[in-house]
């Protein structure tokens, strides 16, 4: 059977209903604590709960604050073509096939083994028992036979003929009892008693559940657990299968060794005992330790490699393990939490390829914070979030573009993150601009009058771009997107180069109808001057007279004896910086802060306004989104 879709309600933070019309390849995304793990574990409860009652506890797993209602599930399956054709002749609802309900499975060496239905690495007690090929006795009722038996007990006008699909419902009572049902709400034939119907229904459901095996790998996955509980049993079973023809040889050799030891005992005077060495019930138990290594430039054991490569190599074994399970009549459901947690981003594409290949032979459900693992099909994406009451809700998307945009917002993945800009930012032309701003902020923080001023500027990141043209190029390509994520202000010198680049940007953004206004989106320092012009004229005159070689040309003043714009030698800018800062340290702050104070006031005010605007816009979008969800519900 193939799993098509599912529905779950009243489980942990899911107090409403979450459903998906797809199963294999499903990607569950959302912020931390949005309910991703709850949804994944809900699927485990449906498939494993009957065999592992520890997976569900009514008092712990019912939604908080919900006094009535029961946890419920609905999973839709379809029959494969081969299953539709696998029908017995003269099938009747009285056919009794007890062997089919307690299947006797024989190990390779002839001992009975118990099958396992699930594997989980959610705790340290994960165990696996590999199922062995069954030795059947006669014709057993097929899955389709069981379905037809059940269908023949129904007499309802809404169900006139057998279907190619079936939905299995599960309700868990407050006593932690599991109630699986098929044909929920349909009428039975008058002659069919409740016990008759329940018996056939139980066998059909058990047959469905036994054909699937869950492997749950949490985000705190252990490489050793995956290796010892998945890869090693698989390798043992493969080797054991290859050595079936040698079973008698093994028995004979063990008998030979036993007889030699027994003879030595007899010769020593112990003639009332015999020594016996027997093979274990299953041939694969003969094999103990396997050494796994990876060879890149050199060959080393797997544990010596990086965590990402270890994880990726073991993920690569999942397909072979799944194929082995298929030969035993089980289809594996891999439930993987945050596969990116142990991977370098460069390995994400390779890991994604491994999972896509795995989907050919098994089911793969993934929770993730990484866009790399988001499905290309919008219908296979479940985006989760919590409303104001802490209830997990889901969003559906029709277009992948919309899905990715929404997910990026939900996960907190912003365009600005690619440039390591997590909060407010001030963009400046070059390194000395950055050093001047940070140094003046530090100096003012030591004065009571100014230490609490400009909080938005003080918390902002100051980034430099190596020159005004580089700053302009960055803004052309990125400002439109970054400005939507975080408050950013650009600072331009008032010299010729700064004015030229700033006017180019105004023209460029104006044509694109993107706001780029003075004292709101960018700041120009003193007109005609670079950032050094923010210091008092007497500081500048003193520097020019003391160190004339630091400047291009000489000192110049206008008719009013006001210093005129000047240029500093590139290799002397740091010298001038240190000169100005030293004068600031030894002179009263009120004597040099004036121009800096005005610039800082404008920058801080602009950052505050942008921060409030972005916050308000985000709040409006969230409110609008929640309203749409309630209307859709």
From TrEMBL:
Keyword presence, Hydrolase: yes
Regions annotated as coiled coil: none
Domain of life of the source: Bacteria
InterPro entries: AAA_GajA/Old/RecF-like, Bact_Antivir_Def_Nuclease, P-loop_NTPase
Biased composition annotated in UniProt, kind: Polar residues: 126-136, 623-633
Gene3D superfamilies named in the record: P-loop containing nucleotide triphosphate hydrolases (3.40.50.300)
Pfam families (UniProt xref): AAA_15
Endonuclease GajA/Old nuclease/RecF-like AAA domain ranges (all copies): 1-374
SUPFAM superfamilies in UniProt: P-loop containing nucleoside triphosphate hydrolases
This protein's UniProt keywords: Endonuclease, Hydrolase, Nuclease
Single GO term (MF): endonuclease activity
Signal peptide bounds: none
Protein name: ATP-dependent endonuclease
Species: Salmonella enteritidis
């Amino acid at each position: 059977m193939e799993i098509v879709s599912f529905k779950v309600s009243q489980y942990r933070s899911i107090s409403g209903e979450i459903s998906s019309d797809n199963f294999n390849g499903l990607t569950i995304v959302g912020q931390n604590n949005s309910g991703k793990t709850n949804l994944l574990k809900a699927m485990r409860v449906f498939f494993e709960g009957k065999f592992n009652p520890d997976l569900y506890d009514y008092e712990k797993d019912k939604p908080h604050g919900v006094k009535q209602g029961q946890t419920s599930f609905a999973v839709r399956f379809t029959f494969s073509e081969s299953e539709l054709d696998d029908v017995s002749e003269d099938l009747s609802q009285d056919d009794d096939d007890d062997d089919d309900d307690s299947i006797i499975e024989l190990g390779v060496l002839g001992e009975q083994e118990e099958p396992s239905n699930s594997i989980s690495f959610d705790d340290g007690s994960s165990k696996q028992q590999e199922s062995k090929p069954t030795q059947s006795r006669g014709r057993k009722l097929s899955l389709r036979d069981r379905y037809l038996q059940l269908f023949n007990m129904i007499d309802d006008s809404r169900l006139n003929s057998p279907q190619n699909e079936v939905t299995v419902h599960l309700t868990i009572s407050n006593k932690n009892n599991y109630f699986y049902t098929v044909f929920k709400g349909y009428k039975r034939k008058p002659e069919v008693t409740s016990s008759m119907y329940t018996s056939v229904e139980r066998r059909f459901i058990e047959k469905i559940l036994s054909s699937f095996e869950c492997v749950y790998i949490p985000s705190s996955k252990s490489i050793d657990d995956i290796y010892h509980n998945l890869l090693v049993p698989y390798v043992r079973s493969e080797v054991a299968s290859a050595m079936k023809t040698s079973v008698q040889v093994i028995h004979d050799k063990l008998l030979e060794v036993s007889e030699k030891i027994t003879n030595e005992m007899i010769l020593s005077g112990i003639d009332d005992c015999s020594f016996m060495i027997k093979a274990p019930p299953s041939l694969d138990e003969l094999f103990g330790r396997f050494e796994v290594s990876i060879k890149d430039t050199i060959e080393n054991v797997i544990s010596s490699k990086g965590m990402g490569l270890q994880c990726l190599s073991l993920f690569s074994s999942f397909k072979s393990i799944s194929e082995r399970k298929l030969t035993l009549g089980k289809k594996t459901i891999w439930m993987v939490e945050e596969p990116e947690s142990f991977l370098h981003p460069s390995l994400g594409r390779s890991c994604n390829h491994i999972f896509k290949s795995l989907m050919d032979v098994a089911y793969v459900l993934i929770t993730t914070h990484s866009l790399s693992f988001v499905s290309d099909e919008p219908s296979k994406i479940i985006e989760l979030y919590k409303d104001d009451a802490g209830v997990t809700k889901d969003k559906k998307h029709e277009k992948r573009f919309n899905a990715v945009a929404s997910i990026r917002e939900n996960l907190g993945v912003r365009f600005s993150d690619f440039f390591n800009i997590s909060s407010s930012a001030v963009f400046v032309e070059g390194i000395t601009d950055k050093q001047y701003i940070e140094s003046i902020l530090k100096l003012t923080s030591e004065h009571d009058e100014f230490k609490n001023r400009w909080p938005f500027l003080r918390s902002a990141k100051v980034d430099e771009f190596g020159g005004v043209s580089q700053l302009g190029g960055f803004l052309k390509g990125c400002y439109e997107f970054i400005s939507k994520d975080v408050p950013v202000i650009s600072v331009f010198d008032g010299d010729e180069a700064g004015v030229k680049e700033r006017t180019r940007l105004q023209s460029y953004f104006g044509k694109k109808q993107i706001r780029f206004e003075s004292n709101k989106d960018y700041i120009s320092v003193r007109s005609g001057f670079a950032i050094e012009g923010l210091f008092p004229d007497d500081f500048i005159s003193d520097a020019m007279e003391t160190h004339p070689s630091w400047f291009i040309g000489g000192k110049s003043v206008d008719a009013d004896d006001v210093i005129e714009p000047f240029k500093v030698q590139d290799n002397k800018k740091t010298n001038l910086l240190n000169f100005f800062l030293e004068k600031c340290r030894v002179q009263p702050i009120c004597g040099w802060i004036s121009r800096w104070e005005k610039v800082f006031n404008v920058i801080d005010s602009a950052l505050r306004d942008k921060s409030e605007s972005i916050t308000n816009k985000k709040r409006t979008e969230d409110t609008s989104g929640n309203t749409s969800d309630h209307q859709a519900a």
